[in-house]
Automatic annotation (TrEMBL):
InterPro entries: Arg-tRNA-ligase, Arg-tRNA-synth_N, Arg-tRNA-synth_N_sf, ArgRS_core, DALR_anticod-bd, Rossmann-like_a/b/a_fold, tRNAsynth_Ia_anticodon-bd. NCBIfam families: argS. It is found in: Cytoplasm. Residues 452-573 form the DALR anticodon binding domain. This is Arginine--tRNA ligase. GO terms for molecular function: arginine-tRNA ligase activity; ATP binding. Monomer. Its main location: cytoplasm. It comes from Corallococcus exercitus.
Length: 573
């Protein structure tokens, strides 16, 4: 398993402290924290040692600092803390060379998850409906989490678990028979219109609603005519879905739906009947296990004999473990479904499944501020179209003003628009709600996708103007405070990728990229104020090469991080 530059120095510092104190390094390493940047990079507090040594913490820190010698670190006592600062060499060269050697794979560690498998259930739209804007959180979060685990060497089995079973498809079917045009059965937009009409009719006409229920019962009975119509709806939906996913650069290892478990659920119910048991409640079959006050029971079958989400999710969990023997099975689904997954996982545990604890619900908050249009769902495709159009106006303005050169304004606007929407979601802590704002997400300034894409394009442009990537450079020349601050930000990506995967939290990567871009911006701007600090400094080829090498490492780090987030990396903006 490869170790990041930061982790190596942190481990060496902890080892030296442990040796001086005569304790195992494993006891010390958790106590080594990031230092206040004014005082160093690593810090160890001596307060816990005061009682045993019968000394004041500052005295303990001073004594420890005098005895420690760690290659590559400057160790000093600051009050009760022992602090360590990375020496410019070999630290600077280790970071820059590590980034450039890895390329866009920087941050990855193929050995970390070698031999492990993670199943990730995400996106999961309903057939006969468009992919709505409300699907962006599960789709983008799931895609990024999958990328993070791939980067760490895990075998990823991404599953787009379609909602393709249930009474709603009875509604589409009877609605199509009533309102549909057979010549347009391959038209996704037409199916959506039919569903909206049928859903409204069912709310007003109990007899029509019962027809929909009856059609679903025919589906569950596997009647050929019912299944033929359902299959046509499913294929039309898949064709539309795949076009939108391709636009976003998202692919799945598996596209399968709840229908996969049709005919397999009775076996699961029989298994549950043995342990923990089932019982009848108002004509329905429920899992027989203790429930908290006010907690609804886990329904396996309704009183009309039809199955429910829980039944299908239990069957799916067993099937996935049988197929993939997973080490983790993640469900990237809204916080609203927290009770559902707690109950499903608890049922699996009560069934005696030893792998039940490997199942994890990865919840996320809601998006506010994107209103529906005429009572209908806002389609994700429409949002991407609008983002592109908003960006295209700005691109054309910049081209006209001579601030931008591009041979394909349309393609560039598509890339920036997608980056705006994706980053606008992933920069938020996944558990938090946020409010969508068009002006904010498409801005070239602030905490936005276009700002990061611009930072990447700017670094690429500097390299072009500087004559390309230098083959050799002298890292000892990179001593400016702005340079050392930037190197420290670049160093963080590998550890951030691991933390983001462990916490299922892409926002950690998003926030790091903002820090990298901000540090590079300060570095670039310093050159505007002082000619000697310019990256493309004149009259000093060695300094110019060193700064271009640092710029190259910055470009690569931004590209690597944006790629993990699923965001395009234009070379020119």
């Amino acid at each position: 398993m490869s170790t990041s530059v930061y982790s190596r120095y942190r481990a060496a510092f902890a080892q030296a402290l442990a040796g001086a104190l005569g304790v195992p390094a494993a006891d010390i390493e958790p106590q080594v924290k990031p230092a206040d940047p004014a005082h160093g990079d690593l810090s160890f507090a001596t307060f816990p040692l005061a009682k045993a040594q019968k000394k004041a913490p500052p005295a303990i820190a001073a004594q420890l600092a005098q005895t420690l010698q760690v290659p590559g670190l400057e160790v000093k006592a600051v009050g009760p803390y022992v602090n360590a600062r990375f020496l410019p060499l070999p630290f600077t060269q280790e970071v820059i060379d590590g980034v450039r050697l890895a390329g866009v794979a920087y941050g990855s560690d193929a050995e970390d998850g070698k031999g492990k498998t993670v199943v990730i259930d995400y996106s999961s739209p309903n057939i006969a409906k468009p992919i709505g804007f409300h699907h962006i959180r599960t789709t983008f979060l799931g895609h990024c989490i999958a990328n993070l685990y791939r980067a760490l060497g895990w075998r990823v089995e991404g599953i787009n678990y379609l909602g393709d079973w249930g009474k709603q498809f009875g509604l589409v079917a009877v609605g199509f028979q009533e309102y549909g045009d057979p010549a347009r059965i391959d038209d996704m937009a037409h199916l959506v219109q039919v569903y909206v009409q049928a859903n409204k009719r069912a709310g007003e006409d109990p007899a029509f609603d019962e027809k929909a229920r009856e059609f679903f019962r025919r589906m569950e009975a596997n009647e050929p005519d019912a299944m033929k119509l359902w299959n046509q709806f499913r294929e039309t939906s898949l064709k539309g879905f795949k076009r939108v996913y391709a636009r976003m650069g998202i692919d799945f290892e598996h596209i399968e739906g709840e229908s996969r478990y049709q005919g397999k659920m009775d076996a699961v119910i029989e298994q549950i009947a043995k342990k923990p048991g089932t019982k009848e409640s108002q004509g329905a079959i429920i899992v027989d296990m203790p429930y908290a006050d006010g907690e609804p029971p886990v329904l396996l079958k309704k009183n009309d004999g039809s199955t429910l989400y829980a039944t299908r999710d239990l069957a799916a969990a067993e099937d996935r473990y049988a197929r993939f023997n997973f080490d983790k099975s993640l469900y990237v689904v809204a916080q609203d479904q927290a009770l559902h997954f707690r109950q499903v996982f608890r049922t699996l545990k009560e069934m005696g499944q030893p792998w039940a604890d490997k199942c994890v619900h990865v919840p996320f908050g809601r998006i506010h501020g994107m209103s529906t249009r005429k009572g209908q769902v806002v389609e994700l495709d429409q949002v991407l179209d609008e983002a592109k159009e908003r960006v295209l106006q700005r691109v054309k303005e910049n081209v006209a003003q001579g601030n931008l050169e591009t041979t394909d304004a349309d393609a560039l606007s598509e890339q920036i628009g997608l980056g705006a929407i994706v980053f606008g979601d992933l920069k938020h802590n996944r558990a938090s709600d946020y409010t969508f704002d068009w002006d904010e997400v498409t801005s070239l300034e602030g905490h936005t996708g276009p700002y990061l894409q611009y930072a990447h394009a700017r670094s690429a442009n500097v390299l072009r103007k500087g004559g390309g990537v230098p083959t050799a450079y002298d890292p000892s020349l990179l001593t400016l405070p702005e340079e050392q601050a930037l190197v420290r930000e670049l160093m963080r990506l590998p550890d951030t990728v691991k933390a983001a995967a462990e916490q299922y939290e892409p926002s950690l990567v998003a926030r790091l990229l903002l820090d990298v871009a901000a540090a590079y911006s300060r570095y670039y701007t310093a050159g505007n104020k002082d000619r000697d600090k310019r990256i493309l400094v004149e009259g000093n080829d060695a300094m110019r090469a060193a700064r271009l090498a640092l710029t190259d490492a910055t470009r690569i780090t931004l590209a690597a991080g944006l790629t993990l987030l699923g965001i395009p990396t234009p070379e020119n903006m």
